[in-house]
Design a protein that fits this description.
Elements lengths: L2 E9 L3 H10 L8 E4 L8 H4 L4 H4 L9 E2 L12 E2 L21 H9 L7 H11 E4 L15 E4 L8 H11 L15 E4 L4 E2 L2 E2 L2 H12 L2 E4 L3 E8 L2 E9 L2 E13 L2 H11 L2 E2 L1 H7 L5 E2 L11 E9 L5 H4 L2 H14 L11 E5 L10 E6 L3 E6 L2 E6 L4 E8 L7 E3 L10 E3 L6 H18 L2 H6 E5 L8 H11 L1 E2 L30 E3 L14 H18 L1
Helix pairs in contact: 1-7, 1-15, 4-5, 5-15, 12-14
Length: 543
Amino acid sequence: METKNFDFIVVGAGSAGCVLADKLSDGPNGGSVLVLEAGGSDQQVWIKVPIGYGKTFYDEKVNWKFMAQPDNGLNQRQIYFPRGKVVGGSSSINAMVWARGLPTDYDDWAAMGNSGWSWADVKPLFESIEHRVNSSGQTTSQDKGKGALYVSDVKDQLHPTEQVFFEGAKQAGLPFTDDFNGNSPEGVGRYQINTYKGRRWSAADAFLRPALKRGKAHLQTKAMVQKILFEGNTAVGVEYLHNGQMVQVKARRAVVLASGAIQSPQLLQVSGVGPAPLLNAVGVPVVLDSPQVGQNMQDHLAMSYYYKSTQPTLNNLLSPWWGKLWVGMKYVFGQKGPLSISVNQCGGFVKSAPEQERPDMQLYCNPITYTLSSSGKSTHIIPDKFAGFILCYQPCRPLSRGKVEITSPSMQDAPAISPNYLSHPEDQKAAIQGGRLIQQLAQTAAIKGLIKAPIAPDCLPMTDEQLLEDFRQRASTCYHPVGTCVMGTNIANSVVSPQLKVHGLEALFVVDASVMPTVTSGNTHAPTTLIAHMGAKAILSLV
């Protein structure tokens, strides 16, 4: 077996892996980097067209399409877990929302013993990452365009129903904010998204491609890593499967896992790093008994209520053939219109009740309703033929904890994903509080005027018990799994140090969403990008 050598091996070309390719190969202390990605190229129409994530959501060619285990908290339902299996990872198939989270999220991390991760520490780095552009496509003065990742204000393309939502929120006593990523993130407002000139701007666009052009970073697609190679307690390389052949590569300085909250713990476990009882049960020789690997899983659960609308919505454009033709022409000839943005257009971070110390709910108001149509292996999202809209909420900081565990010694076998949703009583209370907030919004004069009729089930007549039961029956993931290789102070309470080095092992790091001690209050692409920048800096200082 031929063995090649690189300074760094990065497993995964997703949101974190693309950043690592860029930063670990740059500067006088950088080195050669091999990025191994199990999926293929992201040069596909429905990846580049922003609204195309509706097409990739169930596409097994670019999506791992994981399924969670039956969940007690959700009446034994199995939740679908889409994850990117393509260059750019989930940043190539997500809804593109860029939300840093609340400042207190990071202060919480620091208070748990993770020095260097407070809001004061990370805010300047966020500002250096972002290249903000206004609705005219011009760089704002806030960051002077220094960052590589475009964060676009697309308010001129948003559907006019946003104004009804904003008025309803005002009538419900909720504040308004111009910038979820600014100094005053609390309130309702418009989501900023990762697009540039009407096209998705993924982590691959922002970070990986510039790194590849410099020549010190190398990308191998269709490369499924099978295990980490160790010499004693030092990671020295990996083995991966490519075109049916096993390939071995060695790392002179470090192996870095950036495979996300599902597959980073899976790869550690099949390589012998994890809870010894689990590894013994599936026949994996134990390299290191690390009890927290795969534990501490957290995720946002979202609940949506559907309504027929008295005003035209995106359904009126995306359902009939003539509407599809019109939006297609608008996009082709000007990169504008509904195809150039996400359907997650407006929402906010708000308090479900005045006594809350900080925002505890994230809202969405989407100017569309849809059904799912399955045929053979394919599932399609079909906009309804009538005008409709969605009011959605997700509790920001769930306290329930789940786990990810291998079921065999093979990376080809999906791990068992057990989110353990609603197992903490406070999460049950939060589900009810979110339902009450939607009831409050739906009864404002503005939104009542937009509702032609609720699409069953109608939340308005529901009691607290019925709201919770409805949540158990219909809530689903917002695709924000984190925490399964949690950072902390020692091997008893965590998997990696605040420098993201795996406890008890040398030259091995985990740098992705799995290291989050607690999930941030919103979408997780932005904090994952931050983690990768922080991790790259730490790695270069340590090895």
